[in-house]
Amino acid sequence: MAPLPRPHSATTEAIYAAYAKARSQAWDSIGISISLLGEECERALWYAFRWASKPEVIDGLKAITFETGEIEETRLLHALRMIGCEVDDVDDRGKQYRVTAVSGHVRGKTDGKVLGLPEAPKTWHVVEAKSMKDTYWDKVKKLGVREGYFAHWVQLNTYCHLFGFERGLYICRNKNTGEVISERIETDHAEAIRLLARAERIIKYANPPPRLHDDPNAKMAFKCRTMCNHLANCHEHSFARLTCRTCIHATPEMFGDAAWSCARWNNPLSLAEQKQACPAHIFLPSLVPGELIDASDEEEWALYTLHDGREWRDGVKPEPQRSYWHHPESGSVFATLPGEPDPRDTEPLCEEITFAEFIRLTDHYTAQGE
């Protein structure tokens, strides 16, 4: 006799939905996050910076996972206070300390600063608090954070460099056992400068850097096919998203705070404008899944042979009647063009909004990310 299927739990589904709705998570980062500076694949950083790939939706389970990390962070900072340390984890506005580099195109928030560690009671340290499962934790415990979890070390080291600190504290709790390890690091300013220079180079690229792996099905490309949000654009011939950052006319400026400009209209670009794009949008040729065969600067068009053999013309278009959408689960606002799929077909919680609401919500989520 076949076993009975496990009963569907409406309670569990309701909890996931509530967590997803409660978590306000903007889809797109303003710049390259310091938490990602240690990413091996420069192409992935470029795609994310250019808003080329479909952003990740934060579902209920992911929202719970993120909350767990935040709880562990609070617990570890409290543990430092329990042993008599002074922990400074918010600025004058009551928010996490924020730091930027490369004219605001690299940015991040640190967990805090700590004074009074038993090993060095008179030295201020930048502190990063993390939690992880056994597999990663054991490696960090054995090798240290630099060798065991390079991305975390890069994050802490870069904060130390940008805040002008010579020491950092990495403190981590094992999710499986509850064990805690802590490690002091000495700031490697040379490595921080190298990685920030690498980020600046990626930001200035007009075309994506080379792929980390040409074949996503290769054994060494496990991360490409299972963990990368850019697989469709990098390997599966998908078009990039329609935003100013995928347009040939847009440039990230090396002044101000994460400023972008448009050469077509000779104007600066607000975040809302960047997300919407305009009728004069022309894709960067490297983001079109095909070969450029002809183009006209005066008439503003480009002709491609796509990977499937079809011809496709990109160029100035009549003003389309866009539809504007809000996805409360992820805190995302975005636009679609006529003929594009209705996002409610795959994301039932999407709601159609007016252009005024699109601008208001874009500003709202941007302010929350600051």
UniProtKB/TrEMBL annotation:
Protein name: PD-(D/E)XK nuclease superfamily protein
Organism from which the protein derives: Bradyrhizobium huanghuaihaiense
